[in-house]
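Onboarding guide, step 5: your first structure request.
Type a short instruction followed by the sequence, for example:

Predict the 3D structure of this protein.
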Amino acid sequence: MAANTVAEPGTIGQVYEHRKTHKIGVLESRETKYKTLMFRDKNGGSFTTTYSTFRSDWRKYAGDEVIQTSTQAEEKKPEKKPAEKPVKEKSEKKPDKKKENREEIEALTEETKNLVTAILEKAKKDLVVKIGGHGGKMNCVRVKNGRKNLFEIWLHKEAFEFFTNKELWDAMEFPEKFGDVKAEIHENFNLKYKAVFNEKALQAVIKIAVAAV
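The system replies with structure tokens like these:
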């Protein structure tokens, strides 16, 4: 005689409901060795129950809610399209800040040369005015009497350096609004007396220097 066989409980893919708690879940798999059933709930979570508990407490779900097995849910996922590489916009060439600064300083130096020349002509002083600098930088205005340098003005972005000798510095008379103006003394420089001024004082310092010549 053939041995009696007991049918495995539940149908894979069928949604079941707990008689008392009304919890629902779709049957995903069986573990025959331990006689347990694996369910998937509507939130995608998993839970298990034993064969005996299933037979006594669970029934086929008769409602409208649909719960898919994890396999079905995976199959329904849309294929991921490869991410489109962002099209890089052609960036405009950034302006060369160093070049802009140099051109700005050189323009200021040319204006300063013209200003010095105009003040000298008004004072009726026949002196030579030249532009120069170090390392190719044209940011210095030199005032010379023949071959002798009387004073130099080195232009920077928001200030300027004034260089002269002791004789001319001592002869320069600054108005009260300048306060107590003192020069730094650099023994290794050709024009040893140096003072730094705000760019707004440029014209006034040139007039004071020319008057002291």
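Each response can be followed by summary notes, for example: The helical segments are 51-57, 70-76, 97-122, 166-171, 202-212.
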